[in-house]
Design brief:
The complex is a heterodimer of chains A (about 140) and B (about 130).
Chain A: E1 8-17, H1 20-36, H2 41-60, E2 65-73, E3 78-86, H3 94-97, H4 111-118, E4 121-127, E5 131-140
Antiparallel strand pairs in A: 1-2, 2-3, 3-5, 4-5
Helix pairs in contact in A: 1-2, 2-4
Chain B: E1 6-9, E2 12-16, H1 23-40, E3 44-48, H2 57-72, E4 76-80, H3 84-93, E5 101-103, H4 106-121
Classes of the chains: A alpha+beta (about 140), B alpha/beta (about 130).
Chain lengths: ~140, ~130
């Protein structure tokens, strides 16, 4: 991961993730933010889909959680960042968790690895017994 | 509970998904379609998703399950009208939706279903057109 660029969130919004309807709210929020910075349709769709996968992970594996959506500006470009976190059991093996086809639940195991492929920046933190946090960002230059 | 409306036309079912489905709504659609196929001798199911701007792994998996379940009950399923941005995203996500037959629009989907059923009548249904059958 490249060194973090100094960015200023110009707009933020928080979401509670405790039901499947909250996933729809997160999707709509991310779509709105992506549209507001002029992101192309394909990039919007990828980011919204990644947001949906990560939020569902937090709901199903983390027992619910939170999402923080932000529109970023760093002078030359604008982006949408979504941080999804939960206080669930965490992932003991991050490399394994990112492998396609691996799932600790009923899903297809495409969530994390798939979400990573759909965004420009992807950061995963997890600690057993504490929780997980995934940060994804899509940029428009 | 909220439901996606299902239209019945002879031996076909038609569904147009117009809303961003939450997971339970997608699961309810699977149950409703399966129930209808089984109870009323349905041979073909057409699901139009042209209004959907997101298909994530859950919705994709639900569409796959609808197609597989319908096939076990002797009905064919075609998913029509997928937006290009959704198709690109699904491929990148790694979701191939095995066994789901697709068509560009509802009209072609109906043609696809009819031809699948007449092929089937001549022995063994095989994927054709833009289908993803294996």
């Amino acid at each position: 991961m490249a060194a973090a660029v100094v960015t200023t969130p110009s707009w933020t919004k928080s979401f509670d993730i405790s039901t499947d309807e909250d996933l729809v709210r997160v999707r709509h929020g991310v779509r709105e933010a992506a549209v507001s910075i002029g992101m192309r349709l394909v990039e919007q769709t990828k980011l919204v889909t990644a947001a949906s996968e990560l939020s569902r992970n937090a709901l199903e594996h983390g027992g619910g959680g939170r999402a923080e959506l932000a529109v970023l500006e760093d002078g030359t470009r604008r982006g949408v960042r979504l941080v999804v976190e939960d206080d669930g059991p965490g992932m003991p093996d991050l490399a394994l968790a990112l492998t396609d086809g691996y799932s600790s639940g009923a899903g297809m195991g495409l969530g994390l690895g798939g979400a990573r492929r759909l965004v420009d920046e992807f950061e995963l933190w997890s600690e057993a017994g504490v929780g997980s946090r995934v940060t994804v960002t899509g940029w428009v230059s | 509970m909220e439901r996606i409306p299902v239209l019945e036309m002879g031996e076909f079912l038609m569904v147009t998904i117009q809303v961003d489905m939450h997971d339970r709504l997608a699961s309810a659609l699977l149950e409703d379609l399966t129930e209808a196929v089984s109870a009323r001798g349905i041979r073909g199911v057409l699901i139009d998703i042209s209004a959907l701007d997101v298909v994530d792994s859950f919705i994709g998996r639900t569409l796959s399950m609808i197609a597989s379940t319908a096939r076990v009950l002797d009905a064919e399923t075609v998913v029509t009208g997928m937006q290009p941005a959704v198709a690109i995203t699904l491929v990148e996500l790694g979701l191939s939706m095995p066994g789901v037959r697709t068509a560009l629009n509802a009209e072609r989907g109906m043609t696809e279903l009819r031809s699948a059923l007449s092929d089937g009548a001549q022995g063994g249904i095989r994927g054709g057109g833009r289908g993803h059958d294996t």
